[in-house]
């Protein structure tokens, strides 16, 4: 963890014990265990088939939740807040979508930041 707030909370005191990543053979579905939250579920692939990525995500998450329920556990849910996660910015669905696109010419444009702001998007590295 790189956040001073997370470090101050003691999040990394046992790092890296009990942490890891499970993934399918094609590495298109991953479950990151005990990183910032208890689970981070990731579905990804190259290309533009977002429906396939989202369907895989939903199917996998449904199976994980069913296995938890078999063991008498479930994700923390609050009527007002939705799913309760470690970071308050993830409350609600806990879902964050992302797309990586190479825009070498647009990203050099002087108004690129204004365009992102208007579209409510973030520029991030890879």
From TrEMBL:
<keyword id="KW-0808">Transferase</keyword>
<keyword id="KW-0547">Nucleotide-binding</keyword>
<feature type="domain" description="Phosphagen kinase C-terminal">
    <location>
        <begin position="1"/>
        <end position="126"/>
    </location>
</feature>
<dbReference type="InterPro" id="IPR022415">
    <property type="entry name" value="ATP-guanido_PTrfase_AS"/>
</dbReference>
<dbReference type="GO" id="GO:0004111">
    <property type="term" value="F:creatine kinase activity"/>
</dbReference>
<dbReference type="InterPro" id="IPR022414">
    <property type="entry name" value="ATP-guanido_PTrfase_cat"/>
</dbReference>
<protein>
    <recommendedName>
        <fullName>creatine kinase</fullName>
        <ecNumber>2.7.3.2</ecNumber>
    </recommendedName>
</protein>
<feature type="binding site">
    <location>
        <begin position="96"/>
        <end position="100"/>
    </location>
    <ligand>
        <name>ATP</name>
    </ligand>
</feature>
<dbReference type="Pfam" id="PF00217">
    <property type="entry name" value="ATP-gua_Ptrans"/>
</dbReference>
<keyword id="KW-0067">ATP-binding</keyword>
<comment type="similarity">
    <text>Belongs to the ATP:guanido phosphotransferase family.</text>
</comment>
<dbReference type="InterPro" id="IPR000749">
    <property type="entry name" value="ATP-guanido_PTrfase"/>
</dbReference>
<dbReference type="GO" id="GO:0005524">
    <property type="term" value="F:ATP binding"/>
</dbReference>
<dbReference type="GO" id="GO:0005615">
    <property type="term" value="C:extracellular space"/>
</dbReference>
<dbReference type="InterPro" id="IPR014746">
    <property type="entry name" value="Gln_synth/guanido_kin_cat_dom"/>
</dbReference>
<dbReference type="GO" id="GO:0046314">
    <property type="term" value="P:phosphocreatine biosynthetic process"/>
</dbReference>
<keyword id="KW-0418">Kinase</keyword>
<feature type="binding site">
    <location>
        <position position="40"/>
    </location>
    <ligand>
        <name>ATP</name>
    </ligand>
</feature>
């Amino acid at each position: 963890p790189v956040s001073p707030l997370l470090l101050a909370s003691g999040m990394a005191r046992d790092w890296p014990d009990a942490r890891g990543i499970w993934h399918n053979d094609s590495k298109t579905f991953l479950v990151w265990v005990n990183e910032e939250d208890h689970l981070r579920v990731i579905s990804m692939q190259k290309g533009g088939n977002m429906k396939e990525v989202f369907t895989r995500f939903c199917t996998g998450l449904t199976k994980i939740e069913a296995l938890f329920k078999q063991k008498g556990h479930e994700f923390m849910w609050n009527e007002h807040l939705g799913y309760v996660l470690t970071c308050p910015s993830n409350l609600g669905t806990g879902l964050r979508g992302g797309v990586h696109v190479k825009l070498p010419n647009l990203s050099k444009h002087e108004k690129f930041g204004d365009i992102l702001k208007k579209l409510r998007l973030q520029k991030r590295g890879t």
